[in-house]
Amino acid sequence: MAVSYFLCPQSLRVSSGSRLCISHSGYSWDINKKKTHHLVYASTNKQGKGLCLESKFQTLLDSVKWDDKGLAVAIAQNVDTGAILMQGVANRDAVATAISSQKATFYSRSRSMLWTKGETSNNFINIHDIFFDCDCDSIIYLGKPDGPTCHTGSETCYYTSVFDLKEHQQVGGDKLALSTLYSLESTISQHKTELAAEQNGKPSWTKRLLLDNKLMCSKIREEADELCRTLEENEDKSRTASEMADVLYHAMVLLASKDVKIEDVMQVLRQRFSQSGVEEKRGRISQG
User: Fold this and answer.
1) Coil vs helix vs strand at 257
2) Angle made by CA atoms 91, 92, 96, in degrees to the nearest 5
3) N or C: the chain end with fewer CB closer than 10 Å?
4) Which residue in 81, 78, 77 sits closest to 265, CA to CA?
């Protein structure tokens, strides 16, 4: 008997021409004219008999440490930037719906119902993968947001810095919880914005680069050459890391001058993961 499990955003088509889906709750129904986003399991044998409700995913859901209300913490994270976008709670049906619809789905405790992020704003979080932690009591929806996640219009729901409060700095709604790479991008962007204002005194190195394309390109070539020398001359790891940092910094200044986000670069890299070098090159040629 060949046994399989899968998720279907539409249905399982059976030989009679009707459509049938089996949810993890064990109920079945005809959905010939209706789509469903339930997690489904099906098994068939040579005689076309029998349906199996067991699967590896069913076992995984059984192992989750749901609280006394059947809920677990669910966190949405940007697949390219690594930014934590939001936190909610999910139950079994929410996770099943998230997998089949590939949209971050949560459970609303105030409304006692499932809700999909973006169902009113269209700022969906498109899921690329789902992770459970080692204790199986929290979930990460790893995905790509269509727009701002927070209802305030912010990119994420996390924009209040405790350290800013500690240092008595003014807390604004535009400071996000950024990783090192994206903090650098934000700083470069700020320098670019300041170029429009009148300059007093000697400009910073970043501003000098932004004002002089030839200088910027010559520095990128210079730093790339120095990075290669760490390999050719068998220099130590710390030297390689230092030279790579220089390459990244200068390259990111160039990106800023071209209004290209590092997130756009990460997305291109992610899309290339499943491509061979030959396929990727053919794709660039065809686009050109």
Assistant:
1) helix
2) 120
3) C
4) 81
Euclidean distance between CA atoms 246 and 38, whole angstroms:
49
Residue 70 tokens read as: 């059947």
Sheet holding 84-90, edge to edge: 84-90, 72-78, 138-145, 125-132
As a dihedral over the C-alpha atoms of residue 242, residue 243, residue 247, residue 253, rounded to 10 degrees, the angle is 50
Burial of 109 (0-12, 13-18, 19+ CB in 10 A): exposed
- 268 close to 203: Cβ distance less than 8 angstroms: no
Beta strand 28-30 with 39-44 is: unpaired
Closest listed residue to residue 126, CA positions, set 192, 159, 80, 188: 80
Distance CA 36, CA 29 (A): 10
Report the residue count for the chain: 288
